[in-house]
Amino acid sequence: MHFIGEQMTKIIDLAINLCSTKIHIQEMGGLYKKRIITRCVELSEGMFNMV
User: Fold this and answer.
1) Dihedral sign computed on CA atoms, order 37, 22, 47, 39
2) How many helices (H) and strands (E) in the chain?
3) What is the rounded distance in angstroms from the CA atom of residue 3 to the CA atom of residue 33?
4) For the whole model, what pTM was predicted?
5) How far apart are CA 2 and CA 41, in angstroms?
6) What is the pLDDT of residue 12?
7) CA distances in angstroms from 45 to 25, 28, 29, 35, 41, listed in the order given
8) Nearest 5°: CA angle at 47, between 29 and 4?
9) What is the spatial distance between Cα 42 and Cα 50, in angstroms, rounded to a whole number?
10) C-alpha dist (Å) from residue 39 to 4, 13, 15, 16
């Protein structure tokens, strides 16, 4: 179980990094950026629910 927790932490970190990168790339498009943040939050919540 501990191993699964570690893997999930890595996946969540990766997802957060990916989201941050996408947000940074889309810095100019406010609406699009907001949509990405929302999607990332949904993604993160989904991952935490799986744990």
Assistant:
1) positive
2) 2, 0
3) 34
4) 0.36
5) 24
6) 74
7) 23, 26, 24, 15, 6
8) 140
9) 12
10) 24, 15, 11, 11
pLDDT tens, 7-48?
Answer: 777 877 777 777 666 655 555 556 566 676 777 777 777 766
Give me the residue label for tokens 């957060």: 16
Q: DSSP states of the chain as a string?
A: -HHHHHHHHHHHHHHHHHHHHHHHHTTT-HHHHHHHHHHHHHHHHHHHHH-
How do the residues of the chain divide into helix, strand and coil, expressed in percent and rounded to 5? Answer: 90, 0, 10
Tokens representing residue 10 in the block: 């890595």
Distances, alpha carbon 33 to alpha carbons 26, 30, 49, in Å: 6, 5, 24
